[in-house]
Structures are given as C-alpha cells and as structure tokens.
Design goal:
single chain, about 850 residues, 6-stranded mixed β-sheet, about 45% helix, binds adenosine-5'-diphosphate, binds magnesium ion
Length: about 850
C-alpha cells in the first residue's frame, strides 16, 4: 500500500491500475470509480480499503472504457520478476493514458484521428492559437484562431482532449467550457507557465534539436509558440518522463496552416450537413462520410474525414485533386492496380508512432516492412502520369532509405510473426549467431530426449517408460504404477498421477536447465534484435510518415474516383465568380438510399458563367412548398455539392459550375433542440447573427425555416429583414420558408427569385414529385400532409372547415380604420391580426344595435374570448 500511495501521489489525476500478479487492482476512490465506470465488483481489503480488479489479459478493453468515460489512467506494472524479488516486487508507472494521447492499436479507432490540442487564449483580442497533435502518428499542426471563430475552429479540429492554462483564480474559462459542450472533449488544465512563449520556444528548440525555429517557418518570438510548447511539455511529462527525445522522436515539427487555406465551416454547419454523423441518431450511417466506402487503409479513412471537414479554398490545390480523380477515372486499370497496392499498406502512420513510443509488436514491424515494400510498385505506377507528378516525386524522395529498411525487415523477420515478442520466433535463422546457437540446442532437444528415453528403457527394462514435457512441471520420466517396483534408485519422484508416477533424474535436470536457459537466451537475443530493428525503423520516422501521408492522399483520391465511377458523379468546374449552376444535382446520401426514386434538381444562382454575373442575376432564392415536399433536401444537397467540390471530389450532378466559396453557412431549424441552456429561438438568432456578420459575396448560405421559434408576426418580420440583408450582400443563398408573404420580395428586389416545389393534386390527395420549379406557390397543403401523417379523419375535416372560414375572412385584407399600407407589402402583415373575436367586432354594425342586443353581443364575445384563452 505504501508503494501504491507513492505512485498515486505522483499521478494524482489518474486512476491507478496497479499490477498484482494476474490482475490490475485499483484501490480506494479509484476502486469506487472503476466499479461505477466498468461495472466491476467492489471488494474490500482486510484493512477495509475498497478494492476492484480486472484480469491482466483483458486490461486493454477496460482501459479503453475508462478513457472513453473521460478518465485518465496510469498503468503501474511489475518491472521485476516476482521470483527474483526480495520482499516487494519493483513496480513503475509504464504508461499514462489520457483521452488525447493514445497510441495502442487496441485503444484507437482505425478510422478516426485522436488528437490532443492545447488552446492558448490571447486575452486582449479574444482570439488565440490551437496546437493540435496526433500522438499516434506524430502530426503537429498550428492553427490561428480569430476571436469570432475560435469555438468553431476548435470543434472542427475535433480534439479528444483540450489543454488550457489554468486561470489565476482557478476554474475553467468560459470559452473552454463552451468548446467542451460543443466538442465533447476532455479538459486538462495545465500550469500557466507551460504556455509562456519563452518557455515554449525553449522546449521546442531543445526537442527538435535546433537553434532556431525559423526552419519550420516559425518566428522564435511568435506568440503561436505558446500553444505548441504547452502541448509538447504535456506529452513529455505524460508519455516520456525518462527519455523524451527517443520516445517522441516521431513527433514532426509543428506546421502552421496558412490563414484562408480552408473553406470556413462552423460547428453548426458541420452538424447540420451531417458530414460525420447524422443529426438524429448521431451515427456514421446516413452521414456524408458513410457514402465513401472505398478507402483501403485506416490512414485514408482518417484523411477522408479531414478533407470533408476542411475543404480547400485554393483553386490550384482543388484542381490538382480533381485532376487526379479524373486521371483515375479515365484509366480504370491504373485505378484497380493502385487500389490493389493500397490494400497491401498497413497503418504505417500509426506503426511508426508505436515504434518510436516503444510500443510496437513483432507484427507491427513485419507489417511496416511489407507496407513500405509496396512503394516501388506504386512509384512505377504513378510515374509519367502528370496528375500524380507531385505524389510520384514525394515517393521518389523517400524511396531509397525506405527500400533498405524494407529489405532489412524482410530479410530478418519471418513472414508470419508471433503476436508477442515473448513467444519468440520473430527472427529468421541465420540472422544472429547467438540466436541460432540457442535455437539449435532447443531443436536438438527432441533428438536427445528420444535417445535418452531409449537408453532408460534398455537400462530399466520398462518398455512403457516415457520421457515427456509439461509447461508447469517441466521435463519428467513417466512410469505406470504397474512397473513401480522396477524404477531405478536414481529416479526422484516429482508428481503422482492416477495411474502413473513421474520422476526426474540429475541428467534430465541438467538437460532441462540447459534447454530453459537456451530458451531464455533465445528470447533475450530476440529482444535485443527487435530493439535494434525498432531503432532503425524509428530513425526513418520522417520518411515513413511521408510515405503514410502520400498513401493516405492516394487512398482518398482513389476513393473519390471510385465514388465518381460508381455513382455517376461529374467533375465540377470551379470558377472565380459568385455563381452556382448545378444541373440535375442530387443529394449525395439520399441518392444512395433512394436510388432511381431520387428526383434530381437544378440550381442556378448568380448566373451561368462569369460573363453573365451581371448585377441583375438573382443570388437569393426563396423556396416555398408543402411540408415533406423536399425543400430541406434540396437546399442541403446544394450545400453538400459545394462542399464536395471544394474537398476535391466530383459531385452528384450532371454538370456543375461552382464559384469559389469562402464559407458555407447553414441555419436549419431544429424545433426541439435545446443546447447550452438557450432557447430554440435564441440559438436560431445567434446563428443568424453569425451569418449576417460574416457572410460575404463569396459565401454560400442555406436557411431552413428561420423565424419559427417566435410569434408568426415577429418571425415573418425577421425573415423578411434577413432576406433583404442577404440579398444586398450578394451571398448565394437558398432560403426554404413557410412564409409565403416573403415571395413578394422578388417583385421588388432583383437579387431575389422564387422557387417552389411542385406537387400534383389527385382528387383530394396530393402527390409529391420533388421537382423544384420557378415561381411562388400560395398553398401549403398542410392539411393534406397532416392526413398522410395519420391525423384522424374528424380532426382533418374540422381543420378543412376552419381553413375555409379563415380563408374567406382574410380575403378582405383592407380593414377600415387601420393605417394605410406602406409600400404595398406591409399590408400583408395585417392579415395576421386574426382572432374570431376581433373579426366579429369588425363585422359588427353598431348603429343598428339596440342597447340590449349590444349587451348580448358583448357577453357572447366575452365568453368566446375566455373559451379561447
Ligand atoms: P421539406 O423540407 O419540404 O419538409 P424534406 O426535404 O425534409 O421536405 O423531404 C422529405 C422527404 O421527401 C425526404 O426525407 C425524402 O424521403 C423525400 N425527398 C426529398 N427530396 C426528394 C427528391 N428530390 N427525390 C425523392 N425523394 C425526395
Ligand atoms: Mg424541411
């Protein structure tokens, strides 16, 4: 317990998994926590200390659950053979696991990146810097965050764990708290000094062994260093307290993302467009990501997510991706061959991390060798293909060193390696003289034992005598009870079985010792050789990482080409003008699930080509139509097509001309969504405010039913004003709305046009045809839709009846005595002052009423008013 207490003091924030024999035990409050989190039994030690344990062979699963629940774990192992220990076995903390620093295969999702990020807030401006590290692969990125996008950009980076400088007064800074709420990441507070730029610069220079960071494109005085240094310190402390340089050797120098490299997508839009997971169920199935099943490697799957969440803004970079997809599409043989090679590449990006962190297995090493062995073939396939010139050049640059590493691994290791080094058998014969000698002894054992058995039989005359081996008892001579009297005196009894006795002799004992020694000598030799090979591989970390990067990119490009071929996508034409012209566009996800039944639609905003972007071309379309007609689908499909085009993918359409876009905004009504304690309406208006503050003439905006969270009149007024503002801005905007009154805006504003979803009427039924057509609609078919939804017949009939009455009443819009309508359109609002009592009052001819009748009317009206209240 004293030993436990010592480690616990060293790692106070961690749950301590304390190895005791075949179990990892937890004590005291850790045990209670583990009991709650893992559902394992809580027991008591004699001293009344709570205790809970998990079997060592299943520990990875429990570790994973502990981390997923947001806890940190320190694993304390026995670092001494129990039989050699005098008194208590030596133990040490061998791993500290935090949500953002996992490297073991069993703890990670192959298709998801696992980031730890440090956020440095710059007090005065409200902005900051984010340093993002993926420890498993060694990538290290710096992102500058303007104040107004800080939360969104951190959420988009998707860290599992966020480090922040603990404020002087303790507690969690408000913006960090909102990040946690939006991203669901674990928070780790750090001493503020680790964020000091001077300390940070020093930590970085010493880690990367450079005198200045200028070579990495960073100024030594750069305030962005604070975040980078903070994350590095953290990794050094938790992952490599003993020899930081070696273990974190695969960490690449920080790379700064230039401002304006990516299309800005806020967290709401990522969520609304269902890029990574669906809004309703939160599953990957049904998301944009889910339609791309074609990646061959985990590296590709992770890169795909990144490309979809970070679409590009630089036309050259986007075009390069489109060119590559085109090339693969044009040459199917090449595409198939490339996929074949990619399928042979394991997750080298993560293997190199494990190799550096000293957590690699024999299988990792063999997989690494085999994977980098595919490089020459991939290089040959890509050479002389202009679309892949950059990839081919990058591969060529690392080909030399990797070929020799592949050769070394291949020639030394067997093809089918053991899962654990302790099982032995990773290295081939002939690799190492010491190993060979030890192995020969062990192999010869079989021959020796046969000879020895024969000799004993001859000597004792017991024909059934056997010499055997068993894991627990070692070598033995077995004689059945029937021959017990003929056993020579030199035999020492070892074990009694039901019908036989087992013995040992000094000779056999000597032999056993020799074999056992040979075995451990062999294992020890293999360990040394393995270490050497890991060191050799680790020294090639930058080249391996580069190979991994190129592979990941090729994998995503091949996946894009595959989708384009299979689903009939078209290459988008990117132009430098605020236009959007999509022919027969489809929603990428519904297109997959509905197939033939999906109805494609056009979209044209801002003209067809650069020359026609005269000021008169509408940039904003209002879309009206009944519920369930396909409005939301249509506007999302347009946003997704714009996003896919910028990610470098082809798009689900017959043709698409897409103007370069700086931001994609969405505001999608989620009537029942309450987050961060704000009301729906507040959320809606906050998001709208964000759009109005930042949308430019190069932005794409989709608005779905805004203004619904408040009274009709308020909502309509807001929607009206927002439409006017966006129309003036020139942002390409699609606005699906229930407010038919808005459609009159198109009469006055050149930038506004009306679209509606057509439906066919069939008797008293309506049929959805999902076709977007120009012009407005004046019917919402709400009652029809309610009927389809199963609202009972009598209620439908009553509603139809009411609708008729109300419709008649609203047909005389001008109410005598009301202020004269201003500019024509505003009179529309007066229709909304609707109440039967008010209407009755309006209809009343006071001059013809007797006092008694007047009283009667008054009483009735009052009753009605009360009833309706
Ligand atoms: P709205 O926003 O007008 O209420 P949605 O866009 O939510 O309607 O669409 C309702 C449903 O109609 C979708 O879930 C889908 O099943 C179907 N749908 C929408 N658009 C299409 C289309 N273009 N082709 C075929 N079915 C569609
Ligand atoms: Mg809708």
């Amino acid at each position: 317990m004293r030993q436990f207490a010592r480690f616990k003091t060293q790692h106070p924030e961690c749950v301590l998994f304390f190895r005791m024999g075949d179990f990892y035990e937890m004590f005291e409050e850790d045990a209670v926590l583990a009991h709650k989190t893992l559902g394992i039994t809580l027991t008591q030690r004699t001293e009344g200390i709570p205790m809970a344990g998990v079997p060592h062979h299943a520990v990875e699963g429990y570790l994973r659950r502990m981390i997923e629940a947001g806890h940190r774990v320190a694993v304390c192992d026995q670092i001494q053979d129990a039989s050699e220990a005098k008194g208590i076995v030596d133990r040490a903390v061998t791993r500290v696991l935090t949500p953002g620093t996992l490297v073991d295969e069993a703890l990670l999702d192959e298709g998801r990146t696992n980031h730890v990020a440090a956020l440095d807030l710059r007090g005065e401006t409200g902005g900051g810097t984010l340093a993002v590290v993926e420890l498993s692969t060694g990538t290290f990125r710096l992102r500058d965050l303007p104040a107004d996008r800080l939360v969104d950009e951190v959420v988009r980076s998707g860290p599992s764990e966020l480090l922040y400088a603990e404020p002087a007064g303790g507690g969690v800074p408000e913006v960090v708290e909102s990040i946690r709420a939006a991203a669901g990441c674990a928070l780790t507070s750090r001493p503020p000094w680790t964020f000091r730029p001077a300390e940070a610069g020093e930590a970085l220079r010493s880690h990367f062994g450079v005198a200045t960071l200028a070579g990495f494109g960073l100024d030594d005085e750069d305030p962005a260093l604070a975040a980078a240094g903070a994350v590095l310190r953290y990794l050094q402390e938790t992952q490599a307290p003993d020899d930081s340089a070696g273990r974190l050797g695969h960490l690449r120098p920080p790379r700064r993302d230039p401002a304006g490299r990516y299309v800005t997508i806020d967290a709401t839009t990522l969520y609304n467009l269902e890029i990574e997971r669906t809004m309703r169920s939160g599953t990957v199935a049904g998301s944009l990501l889910s339609i791309f099943g074609g990646c061959r490697t985990g590296m590709g799957r992770r890169r795909l997510r990144e490309w979809l969440c970070f679409p590009l803004r630089e036309p050259e970079a986007i075009t390069a991706r489109h060119d590559a997809v085109s090339a693969l599409l044009a040459d199917e043989t090449c595409a198939v061959e490339l996929s074949g090679h990619l399928a042979g590449v394991q997750d080298v990006a993560r293997i190199v991390g494990r190799v550096s962190m000293r957590r690699a297995t024999p299988r990792d090493l063999v997989a690494l060798g085999r994977s980098i062995g595919t490089l020459p073939a991939v290089g040959r396939l890509l050479e002389d293909r202009p679309a892949f010139a950059a990839h081919a050049a990058r591969l060529a640059a690392v080909a030399g060193p990797l070929a020799s590493l592949a050769e070394t691994i291949e020639s030394r290791c067997v093809d089918d390696p053991p899962a654990h080094l302790r099982e032995g058998g990773l290295f081939r014969d002939g690799v190492d003289a010491g190993l060979d000698e030890a192995r020969t002894l062990r192999r010869d054992a079989t021959g020796w034992l046969a000879g020895y058995q024969k000799q004993l039989i001859e000597h004792s005359g017991i024909n059934s005598l056997k010499v055997g081996y068993n894991k627990v008892f070692g070598y033995y001579i077995e004689v059945t009870h029937a021959h017990a009297d003929r056993v020579p005196d030199a035999f020492t009894r070892k074990q009694t079985l039901k019908n036989a006795e087992r013995y040992i002799t000094p000779e056999l004992k000597t032999f056993e010792d020799k074999v056992t020694t040979a075995e451990s000598v062999a294992i020890e030799r293999e360990k040394v050789l393995f270490e050497q090979l890991c060191t050799a591989a680790a020294s090639r970390a930058p080249e391996i990482a580069e190979f991994g990067d190129v592979t990941a990119e090729l994998d995503v490009l091949a996946c894009f080409a595959d989708a384009a071929r299979r689903y009939g996508y078209a290459r988008p034409d990117l132009v430098d003008a605020p236009i959007l012209d999509i022919r027969q566009g489809r929603h990428p996800v519904l297109d997959r699930t509905l197939g033939e039944r999906f109805v494609p639609n056009d979209c044209s905003l801002g003209g067809h080509d650069e020359s026609s972007t005269h000021p008169g071309a509408p940039s904003l379309a209002l879309i009206t139509g009944p519920n369930m007609a396909g409005k939301s689908t249509y506007i999302r499909q347009v946003a997704l097509i714009v996003l896919l085009a910028h990610a470098g993918c082809f798009v689900p359409a017959e043709a698409a001309r897409i103007g370069l876009t700086d931001r994609i905004f969405t505001r999608i009504g989620a009537a029942d969504e309450l987050h961060a304690g704000r009301s729906t309406f507040m959320v809606e208006m906050t998001e709208t405010a964000n759009i109005l503050h930042h949308a430019t003439d190069r932005s794409v905006v989709i608005l779905d039913e805004i203004g619904r969270g408040t009274s009709t009149l308020d909502g309509l007024s807001l929607a009206w004003a927002i439409t006017e503002a966006l129309a003036a801005r020139g942002s390409r905007t699609l606005f699906a709305t229930h407010y038919h009154e808005l459609t009159t805006l198109a009469d006055d504003l050149e930038a506004v046009t009306n679209l509606h979803v057509s439906v066919r009427e069939w008797g008293d039924q309506i049929i959805f045809v999902y076709r977007i057509v120009p012009g407005r609609t004046d019917r919402s078919y709400g009652i029809h839709v309610a009927k389809i939804a199963g609202v009972p017949g009598p209620t439908i009939d009553r509603a139809a009846q009411l609708l008729e009455t109300l419709a008649v009443q609203t047909e005389s819009p001008h109410v005598p005595g009301s202020p004269p309508p201003r500019a024509g359109q505003l009179s529309l609002f007066t229709e909304y002052i609707e109440h039967p009592v008010v209407n009755a009052l309006r209809a009343l001819d006071i001059t013809s009423l007797s006092p008694l009748e007047a009283f009667d009317v008054l009483r009735k009206l009052r009753e009605e008013a009360e009833e309706r209240h």
